[in-house]
Amino acid sequence: MPIKANAEIEAMANQLAALRGQSVEDVVAAALRAELAREPAGRPVARPAKLASSQRAKVTRILEMVRAADPASADAGDRTTFLYDEHGLPR
User: Fold this and answer.
1) Within a 10 A sphere around the Cβ of 83, how many other Cβ atoms?
2) CB neighbour list of residue 59: distance below 8 Å, 6 or more residues apart
3) Model confidence, pTM
4) Under 8 Å CB-to-CB from 62, ≥6 apart: which residues?
5) Quick one: pLDDT band at residue 5, thresholds 50, 70, 90?
6) Can you tell me the mean pLDDT for 16-33?
7) What residues contact residue 24 under an 8 Å CB cut-off, 6+ apart?
8) Is 88 left (phi over 0), alpha (psi -120 to 50) or beta?
């Protein structure tokens, strides 16, 4: 499987390969092995938080309100008023 890299990464890989007299594949493999060796064994993998359907609905509603806010009218006053109801509580 080919790995896509931007021009800067490709240039660094080529430079390191030239300095070491190795192929780009060899220096990339060595760098990856070194980084994997530094990772602590058994470290838990960070997973995204699972949201309940009610939480997802609330996030979606807030995002829709933010998208609908008119930034031009926000210059006149508080830019966060759309986040609160008439009692000052979060919507």
Assistant:
1) 14
2) 51
3) 0.45
4) 83, 91
5) confident
6) 94
7) 13, 14, 17
8) left
